[in-house]
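## retry 2 of 3
previous attempt timed out at serialization; input unchanged, resubmitting
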Amino acid sequence: MERRTLIAILFAIIIVYVSTFAVLMYLTPQYSPTENPQQEIKPAYNITVIIDYGNGTIETFTGINLDPPNTTVFHALLLVAVVEYHYEGPYVFVDAINGVRNNENNNNKWWQYWVNGELPMIAANKYYLNSNDVVEWRYWPSQFSNITSLNSK
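## retry succeeded, writing output
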C-alpha cells in the first residue's frame, strides 16, 4: 500500500508541474524581437531622427541618446518634435508632427517611418532602436501597399 501511495503522490506532483508549465506558457505573450525583446532592453545611443515634411523642408536631429525602457522610435520622435497621437489598442498612431496632420486637406499624405532605410511593419512604440540607428519620418503617400525600402526609390 505504501508503494501505491508513493507512486500516486509522485504522479500527482508530475501532473501539477506539467500543468503549471503549460499554463505559464499559454499566458506568456509571444512577441517579435522588435515589438518586445525577451532579452534586456538596452540603451540606444547616437540615434539620428530625420523629419521630411514632403515639401522640401527636412529637419535632422543627431546624437539622441535613449535609456531603457524608452528606446523606441516613438520615444525618439517625442524628444525632437511636437507630436499628436492616439492609441489603437496597445499601438500608437501618429496623427501629426509639428502641426502637420495626416491627410491634411485630403492630400493623401501620412506620417510614416523608416529605420536604416527599411519600412517596418510595426507601430513606432513597439520598434526598439539600437545604437547608431537612423530614423526617418516622412510625410508621404502611403508606402505600405508598394514598397518596404527607401533604397528601392
